[in-house]
Amino acid sequence: MSRGLTQAELGIKVGASQRVIAYYESHKAQPPGAMLVDLAKALKVSADELLGLTSVKEKTSPKQARLLKRLQQVEKLPPAD
């Protein structure tokens, strides 16, 4: 999931080093339970979403929603248009 944070920035938010964040990200290891709440808050997701128990609900801004709607309308146009 992408929230626009670097590993170093996320590490600062949760009190861990960039190296620790990289380890959890690249090795598919799960962080300790005590860190889950901080990670979920920093990433603005639930702990269930963080652990993959539920799907991540992407929040779209009004601009993104309008752009998505327009792109969907363009996809419906005939190829010549």
Name of the level-1 CATH class:
Mainly Alpha
Span from first to last CA?
Answer: 35 Å
Instruction: Briefly note the structural class of the backbone.
Output: mainly alpha
The low-confidence runs, each spanning 5 or more residues with pLDDT under 50, are: none
Mean pLDDT: 82
Roughly how much helix do the residues carry, as a percent range? 55-70%
Shape: elongated
The total count of strands amounts to 0
Treating each run of at least 4 consecutive H or I residues as one helix, how many helices?
5
CATH topology: 434 Repressor (Amino-terminal Domain)
Largest sheet: none
β-strand percent reads under 5%
Rg over CA atoms:
18 Å
What's the architecture, going by CATH? Orthogonal Bundle
Instruction: Kindly report the name of the CATH homologous superfamily.
Output: lambda repressor-like DNA-binding domains
**Domain module count:** 1
